[in-house]
Amino acid sequence: MTEPTGTPTHCPYCSLQCGMVLRPTDDRTDHAGPPAPATPTTPATPLSVEEWPGFPVNRGALCGKGRSAADLLNPAVRLTTPLVRDRPGAPLRPATWNEALDRVAQAVRRIRDGHGAEAVGVFGGGGLTNEKAYLLGKFARVALRTPSIDYNGRFCMSSAATASNRAFGLDRGLPFPLADIAATDCVLLVGSNLADTMPPALRYLTELTGRGGRLIVVDPRRTRTAAQAHLHLQPLPGSDLALALGMLHIAIDGGLVDTEFVARRTTGFEAVRTIAMDHWPTRVERLTGVPVHQLRQAVQTLAAAPTAMVLTARGSEQHSKGTDTVHGWINLCLALGKAGRPRSGYGCLTGQGNGQGGREHGQKADQLPGYRSLTDPAAREHVARVWGIEPADLPGPGRSAYELLDSAGTPGGVRALLVFGSNPVVSAPRAAHVEERLRALDLLVVSDVVLSETAALADVVLPSAQWAEETGTLTNLEGRVVLRRKAVDPPPQVRTDLQILSALADRLGVHHGFPAEPRDVFEELRRASAGGPADYSGISYERITGEGGVFWPCPGEDHPGTPRLFLDSFATPDGRARMVAVDYRPVAEPPDERYPLYLVTGRVLAHYQSGAQTRRVPALRAAEPGPFVELHPHLADRLGVADGDQVAVVSRRGRAVAPARLSTAIRSDVVFMPFHWAGPGRANTVTNPALDPLSGMPEFKVCAVRLEPVTAPVPDPAHTNVRHIVAHGEAAPHAAAPVASRT
Ligand SMILES: Nc1nc2c(c(=O)[nH]1)N[C@H]1C(S)=C(S)[C@@H](COP(=O)(O)OP(=O)(O)OC[C@H]3O[C@@H](n4cnc5c(=O)[nH]c(N)nc54)[C@H](O)[C@@H]3O)O[C@H]1N2
Ligand SMILES: Nc1nc2c(c(=O)[nH]1)N[C@H]1C(S)=C(S)[C@@H](COP(=O)(O)OP(=O)(O)OC[C@H]3O[C@@H](n4cnc5c(=O)[nH]c(N)nc54)[C@H](O)[C@@H]3O)O[C@H]1N2
Ligand code: SF4
Ligand SMILES: [Mo]
């Protein structure tokens, strides 16, 4: 193929990290004059997004979010100067970098002196590049000396990560390239709506079925993904573990277990078998609502396929028993012998742009770079040496994400929080409580690209460069490390997160070890990760400048990288996969008389996560302007609700109000809300923060609610914040007017 002109790089959003080419906009215009001034509907973006057919994951295909990503560069919708708040309740006002950074450093010192180092916390994000995630973890442990760091990836794939580490000795989302999906014989896809969440990946499922392969989807809703399946199992939310145990029961009963594989490549089957035998099909039908004949059909299809994959995503994982549930699926996969061989295996579809790399290099509460454990003496020794400190000076593990947020402003909790790349006011469970906790902090600092709802609460807001404005590496859902290249300079008063961390470390008296150049940070990351499970030591910027990236582990410059894992042995000490005995338990909050329905939350095609970015993109806002409550017409009838009527979704935590959207694709005992919006329609006002005891994952996917028709008018929540910042952007593109106040 021809080399693209322009800058080949990668999308700012999800874990596919689709390849795209960025070209200066005036390359394509008639050069008749300067670009038109920015308005909310015709943003003056300096770049246009074009296809990069040579990148193997998406082969040129992009979803609407990727195609419109350059709109995020529009100065009218983003932060262009630091902001500070002079006292609680005062509005944010523009400030110089010196003033903003001095303020942060002074407050951090004061809080540290008064309350101890652990009172200063850091909250990171799975969208940050490897370089940022690495430097953020080092910043917490070396510059702040605090154990209090965790990140939004805890809310994402932490249950699958915990289960994969225990079962396989290693956690890499997919143990094979995504394209292998097209070449297997059967895919069991559990709790993933990838037609909406990773659209270019759908082609691999279509290729699979086009070749005669089978697709089974497990989802309480008949999504666009489920509509592609030969068999769609529609269980009650939160009952996947019973389903997996019941399927294993049927496999054992029917003599479908691959006993040779189980004996040679696994341990622990006997205990797993005992529990599965308690889950006879009619019992599982009662627990899950999936008819016995469908359970049998699914098992037979899966067992009969010479090769097969079991893939999970958030639908199965975001539960207070998410880790056990993933073990249930892994056990089934192993018992049928569909792992540790080509075109077969268990995989987790990670979510955020750097959901994989972001969990490998140290922003996680319990972890050091290279996916090392913070409690392993050898790992501490190795990393301390790279960092030039004593192992004893490395803090121990801190609280998990929700616990960290929940501790804010409480005795013994954090009194200062520095947030980089997350918007927990919208995305954390029991969000009204989290918001209250954040307001109780002595210091909230947010580094972001836009004035997110969390940034709007901060004492200091630091405008950070984004995606097309800086170089860095990301590790996609396949474990493929790619180079996202800079294509354009950031606005003058915007800095990169690396520059921010470097300047803050300096102000805290740590003058070395915090380089602001991404390549310098990556070179150190290579050394820090050397010998660890996620070994990047053989990966260099030069090696990943081409089209395919390099898959970790890659322990040497002459090592080709590892696209496929576990073919000969698993990464456990004895090389065998662990089957972990797990038993079914109900959801943390089962429906009852007062709250008789299940609420499921998730995503829509047009918006990304907390919506902080995509709600500011005109085409995406037009495609999906606001929140909604999806419910079955039978349920709507019973409640006297018509399509478009405002309904309140009420749980023990609070109420969210949004228009009803009637759909026969959902069970009549379940309602669905996307979580992309703030204000009255914020789904997370309602969700349950019950945590998985092993992974710290909240039960985002299911809680008990009731619906109430709403008669009083509801203020339009969707774009209050957007309008505000757009308005000030029009008035003065590079200076922020006072914005939302923290009271
Ligand atoms: N458009 C878009 N794409 C995205 C994102 C986005 O915000 N928007 N975010 C990215 C990120 S970070 C992530 S993590 C991924 C998430 O990608 P997905 O996991 O595909 O997305 P979700 O919509 O959260 O959940 C998937 C499905 O789980 C189902 N589900 C709910 N409860 C259960 C259950 O108990 N069992 C089963 N089997 N299924 C259940 C829901 O009905 C839903 O259809 O998407 C990534 N891509
Ligand atoms: N109810 C419910 N809640 C959920 C989920 C669910 O399914 N249901 N899913 C959960 C999941 S899987 C996830 S991953 C979380 C995600 O939830 P969040 O962490 O809130 O995710 P984002 O909206 O991506 O937030 C990223 C923020 O960082 C900013 N940003 C982007 N790039 C950069 C950068 O390079 N530097 C800095 N400093 N900032 C940057 C963006 O503008 C945005 O404000 O939500 C979780 N919450
Ligand atoms: S699928 Fe994900 S990475 Fe690809 S263009 Fe869409 S948001 Fe970007
Ligand atoms: Mo995620």
UniProtKB/TrEMBL annotation:
Database matches in InterPro entries: Asp_de-COase-like_dom_sf (IPR009010), MoPterin_dinucl-bd_dom (IPR006657), Mopterin_OxRdtase (IPR006656), Mopterin_OxRdtase_4Fe-4S_dom (IPR006963), Prok_molybdopt-oxidoreductase (IPR050123)
Stretches the record annotates as Disordered: 25-47
Record bears the keyword Membrane: no
Gene3D superfamilies, per database record: 2.40.40.20, 3.40.50.740, ADC-like domains, Dimethylsulfoxide Reductase, domain 2
Transmembrane segments: none
Every 4Fe-4S Mo/W bis-MGD-type domain range: 4-77
Keyword annotations: 4Fe-4S, Iron, Iron-sulfur, Metal-binding
UniProt cross-references to Pfam families, sorted A to Z: Molybdop_Fe4S4, Molybdopterin, Molydop_binding
Domain of life: Bacteria
Protein name (record): Molybdopterin oxidoreductase family protein
Source species of the chain: Streptomyces ossamyceticus
Phylogenetic placement of the source organism: Bacteria, Bacillati, Actinomycetota, Actinomycetes, Kitasatosporales
